[in-house]
Structure formats: structure tokens, C-alpha cells
Amino acid sequence: MSLFLYNEYDSQYNWLPQDGVVNYYGKLFSEEESNTFFEELWHTIDWRNDEAMMFGKKIITKRKVAWYGDSPFRYTYSKVTKEALPWTPELLTLKNRIETATGETFNSCLLNLYHSGDEGMAWHSDDEIDLKRNGAIGSITFGAERKFAFKHKHTDQKVEMLLEHGSLLVMKDTTQTFWLHRLPPTKKVKKPRINLTFRTIENQRF
Ligand SMILES: O=C(O)CCC(=O)C(=O)O
Ligand SMILES: [Fe+2]
């Protein structure tokens, strides 16, 4: 008899057929814990509308974002530079939980708040210059369950999965070099979702 939460997912299974590693841990947090984290993050995180450059113009996205870390790292994302805020107690708890689960370490976290299925994230890879090369990215979901997809940059192969309330997804090795990922918008989802992507920043020039 295991004392751990029942979980149907094998976290060692690689969802990518080649050129990278994606592990899905399923629900790492219980329903009750996940509901509490959702509420706490909703109220305590310094959510801001994201600014991005598109066709040379600054646009404001409906999705909200926030950026936290060990030190005031500067992070350039969609050609806009932000400075990390100091960890909140909830973020440190989550960081510790996923470091224990994965055996990886993280020094920063980018958070996304999608108000409904109308909001998503287009195809991209997290290969910014300041991110540790081939480092692990730990992605937690609280709130609405959403589809998540990968597309190989050369072969167009696709992999789709569901990200559940309280779940953890890890992308590592050469995943960002060879694969794009996205959160497709959907009319079916009316509820909000909070996503946290824990990352490792390296080579900062202060
Ligand atoms: O919301 C998600 O699950 C993914 C977010 C993402 O890909 C990112 O922040 O780079
Ligand atoms: Fe991403």
C-alpha cells in the first residue's frame, strides 16, 4: 500500500518520440491543496498584463504574467525585459515540492494566468539566451484543465496531452532545441487556469 496520492502516470515515461524529454507527473498535489494554491496565487501574485512585441509594435495581452526568482534576474521574453520579484512563501513551497519530486533545481519562475479558454499561448520554445541550455523546466497547473501540444521543428510530428489541476510537467534535455510547444485556445473552457514554469537562469550580466 502506497501512502502517496494515487497517480496513473509514470513520471519516467518520455512523451516525445525523439530529440527531447517530456515527463508528466500527473497530479502532484491533492484536490484540496490545489484549490488552496489556486486561491493563494490568485490573490498574492503581482499579476500584470503581458507586453509583447508583434510586428514591431508593443501589444498588451489579455493573459496576465508575473516573474519571480532568487535574485532580481532580468529576463527578456517576447522582446520585453522584466526584472524578477523576490519569492513569496507559496512559490518557495511549490519550488521545494517540485525540486524534491524531480531531483532538479530551479532559480526562477514565470507565471501565467489565463482567464478562460479564450486565452492561450502560441507556438514557441523556451530557448531564451539567459536560460540554462538543456535545463529542466517544471510546469505546474492549477485551475482549469487544458490541452498542451508539442510540434517538432523539422518533422512537424505532434504530441498532445492534458494538463490537470495540480499536475506537474517537466520539459528537459534538447526539448527546447527541437520542439515547439503551445497552449491552444479553446471555446470549451470557461474557467481560469494558473500556470507556473520553474526555470534556471544562467549567465546573467548585471
Ligand atoms: O501555460 C502553459 O502551460 C505553458 C506556458 C509556457 O509555455 C511558457 O510560459 O513558456
Ligand atoms: Fe513555454
UniProtKB/TrEMBL annotation:
InterPro entries: AlkB-like (IPR027450), AlkB-like_sf (IPR037151), ALKBH3 (IPR032854), Oxoglu/Fe-dep_dioxygenase_dom (IPR005123). It comes from Flectobacillus roseus. It holds the Pfam family 2OG-FeII_Oxy_2. The keyword Zinc-finger does not apply. Residues 105-202 form the Fe2OG dioxygenase domain. GO terms for molecular function: dioxygenase activity. It comes from the Bacteria. Keywords: Dioxygenase, Oxidoreductase. PROSITE patterns: FE2OG_OXY. This is Alpha-ketoglutarate-dependent dioxygenase AlkB.
